[in-house]
Amino acid sequence: MFFYPHVGELGSAYLQVMLVAGIGLILPFVVNRSSTVHRVALFVVSIVLALRYAFWRITDTLAPVGLTIDFAASGALLLLEMVALVGSLSAFVIMMRVRDRSPEADEHAAWWGEHEPRVAILIATYNEELDVLARTIIGAKSLRHVNKEVLVLDDGRRDWLRDYCAAQAVRYMRRPDNKGSKAGNINHALARLAEDEVVPDFVAVLDADFVPHRGFISRTLALFHDPEVGLVQTPQHFFNADPIQHNLGVARSYPDEQRFFFDHMQASRDAWGIAFCCGTSSVCRWTALQDLGGLPTESVTEDFMLTLALQNIGWRSVYLAEPLTEGLAPEGLKEYVTQRARWCLGLMQIARSSMGPFARNNLRLRDRWSVIDSVFYWMTTFPFRVAAIVFPLLYWFFNITVVDARLPDVITYFGTFYLWIIVVLNLLSRGMVVPILNDVSQLIGAIPISRAAFTGLLRPHGHPFSVTAKGGDRSRIVVQWRMMAPFAIMLTLTLVGLCLGIVSDRFSYNDAGDGKWVVLFWTGYNAVVLAVTVIACVELPRRERHIADAPERALFESEDGAHEVWLTSLTADTARVRGRRYPPTTRGVLEIAEVGAVESYVISETRDGARVQLLPNEAQREALFVKFYAEGAEPGVANVRLSAMMSDLARRLSFSSR
């Protein structure tokens, strides 16, 4: 380590961390996020610091070699950490490049000339409610692309949905069984489409809860100007908060958990030519699907496998990082964890399939690397997150040395590496990496995801397909006791161990390097992460909410005359108006842009206006759906608003009313 004699070892360690922090303050003014040269330089430094840290961990932090519990525990933690570090190094290499295809889409807009390509829009559904399906169907019908056909693929075989589709003039399909789950449902539709007199040129796929923006088709089709492109994937955005955002009260200041992947990692993967299909919000060339013979069914994540299967026969997949669809994020923690465990299981199935990285196929080396990178993510990130919580307890309760390290060395090797990674990732992702919240989002599903990773790799088939539930009653507080229990137990043990270690040497000693000093901070950090995780397991009530980026003008006409008001909140059934107060039960008509004159009455008076109950007719309700979901920019929060996030978290953790 670097040593500055006039400040001592500990001071020298702190100076190195301060140096990294100082460089981090300068980097935003000199780094071009889209420059490959700049990104390579940042991640080369990251890799050097990571290898430096790994060398130190391997050579200088293990318990003394021998047939002891200390050495076994210390070695097990090191092994988990080093495997996780390999996954991180792979991610660093991927993020060295980034690609933005929006200029390409601009350049090749309407490349097909006067005759629009025919597009089949497939909406696969199983058990979703009408409220969920209606907005997707209406959004698909409202696409600006004229030469299209909307098809609803009903694996639930519901007569009421068949009747609704007839009323909406969209095509309805059902099949006699559910073989192959979602992939089988889509393959059945493709076979039926192949029988039509005029087959589509392209096929768009939407989940039952994803509404396309009106330019979804035209923007994605622009990238098919390249005859080698078989599939175009777009990001998934969400018009509601995911469970962690919602339960921690940070939905307006902290992005949803998938933003980093869709806004940054996929764009970097695309630069390497390894962006992959994520199912919904994608468009595929008809001839590519016919060459392939339909979607593969060897994995429950048929979307990722579709990318590999297409590449295997010579078709490329590309990524357009534009907000062209928005959907419903899992609203409950059970659904949230089930979804991610299914993704993990599916990836393990792919690794063991004919498209696996070591199978005999025509995949490029980079495609095999892509699969291996994903396997490392699922198999190392989540088990290591659990290990990071459990291993300090071995020290506090059993005096088992897990890290034999001196405090100055920990700061020098780990502190500089960790701070540099946080600086670089936040610089390139515009502040999306928040340590404690990132840990919570990984920890909350770590146990079932880890189980899915290892069972899927050892026994890839024979697992039931779990559909992510949508909609349902979210009007009351629900405590997920079974999910909370392991975290509450670990939090209790962590706090007890921390107290014992502080007040007594009965259960822990100073024989692991700087002993308590090293593990103390680690344990304190774990206590905070676990406490926030426990709070996140308390699911708060939800209500539908659509808030415009800026208030808009509206006209409210009642018996007192017509008056302009500000429309500041709007849902399918209610609105909040400001600028003029109205007594309850006042009836009138609210003129809303792009919707029309909607019959209304005042529910309650507010300090500066009123809350209004809307009574839209069917056409107006459809117009509201289009206004909410198919128009405008991306929903939700794109970047962390640090001060607002801290305020939101403080309010939630203090249990004060919002």
TrEMBL record:
GO CC annotations on file: plasma membrane
Query: Which residue ranges traverse the bilayer?
Result: 12-31, 40-59, 71-94, 375-398, 410-428, 484-503, 515-538
Give GO MF terms, alphabetically. cellulose synthase activity; cyclic-di-GMP binding
- Superkingdom: Bacteria
User: Which biological process, per GO, is one annotated for this protein?
Assistant: UDP-alpha-D-glucose metabolic process
Report the principal subcellular site: membrane
Q: Where in the cell is it found?
A: Membrane
Protein name from the UniProt record: Curdlan synthase
Against Pfam families, the record matches this protein to:
Glyco_tranf_2_3 (PF13641)
Which keywords does this Swiss-Prot/TrEMBL entry list?
Glycosyltransferase, Membrane, Transferase, Transmembrane, Transmembrane helix
Q: How does the record classify its membrane topology?
A: Multi-pass membrane protein
